[in-house]
Amino acid sequence: MSIMDSLRLRHADAVFVEECKMGSSHAGARRLDAWVLLKTWSPWTAIGYEVKADRSDFLRDRKWPAYLPVCHELYFVCPAKLIAPEELPDDVGLLWTTGGTRLITKRRAVRREPEAEALATLMSYVLMSRTRIVGDMWEAGGRETQADTWRRFLTEKSENLKLGHLVNERIRKELSEAEGRAQRAENDRHRLGHVERRLQELGLDPTVSTWELDRLVGAETLRRIRGLAEQIQTAASEGLALKNRKTTADEVAS
Q1: 155 φ, ψ to 5°?
Q2: Do the domain assignments include residue 136?
């Protein structure tokens, strides 16, 4: 039995995608040997697997860090003793196979939060290229009874509502944080206005050239003033974007 067969058996009750692209092939997307989505919300977990059958393949590989943003846990899988745990970063897991179906956990992966945009791109690929959409709901259900079909429909509806609420709560939290940053930026704007007035009182023109302000005020002070202005612009942009996302999330959850 191959390593991939062992992994597939390990996740027989999960969404298992072999040779999983991280996005469109036109964008030169990399490819995970296996990507797994556990069928649970407690917690929601995506696992990536990089399979190594020989030592030289492992030593040459420089692409695997690109897989970290699309999974909560990343594991290397190899024949026993091919890779030692200390050869991997502390947050990356390692599984050894001893033949047959047995996989030995030499080190558990540390759970991390994936990058939302990268994970969404991968999941879009999975949905578009690895699923089959049919027009007949009875065909999709196989031989299940009508009662089973309605039970499944109600379960999926409940899960979708839960997902909508989770997204909504996450966006509400981000919006609250953005509003806090916007308030701090507004306070900074008032301080910046005070600095401008003080410069004018001292007979300095805030609109003079950069090199002259560096000479009169000092380069470090000028950098701080510019930084405050950039924070104000960033906070305003984030606040507007998050308010739009909150409106969308409210529609999904309703």
Answers
A1: -65, -45
A2: no
Catalogue the E-assigned strands of the chain. Answer: 15-21, 31-37, 46-51, 73-79, 93-97, 103-107
Closest-CA residue to 119 (of 73, 77, 159, 76): 73
Co-location of 117 and 157 in the same domain = no
Do 113 and 152 sit in the same domain of this protein? no
Q: Token digits for 221?
A: 């002070």
Taking the CA atoms of the chain, what radius of gyration do you get in angstroms?
26
Give dist(CA 174, CA 159) in Å, integer.
Answer: 23
Q: How far apart are CA 47 and CA 45, in angstroms?
A: 7
Q: Are 65 and 74 in contact (CB under 8 A)?
A: no
Judge whether 138 lies within some domain: no
Range of the domain at 51: 3-124
Q: List beta partners, residue 79.
A: 97
Domain total for the chain?
A: 2
Query: Quick one: 104 and 179 in the same domain?
Result: no
Flag whether the pTM goes above 0.90. no
Query: From residue 83, how far is each of 50, 66, 124, 220 by CA, in Å?
Result: 12, 19, 32, 49
pLDDT in tens, 130-147: 665 555 544 544 555 555
Same domain, residue pair 101 and 152: no
How is residue 81 written in tokens? 């003793």
Q: Are 31 and 15 in contact (CB under 8 A)?
A: no
- pLDDT tens digits for 39-65? 887 788 999 999 999 999 999 988 899
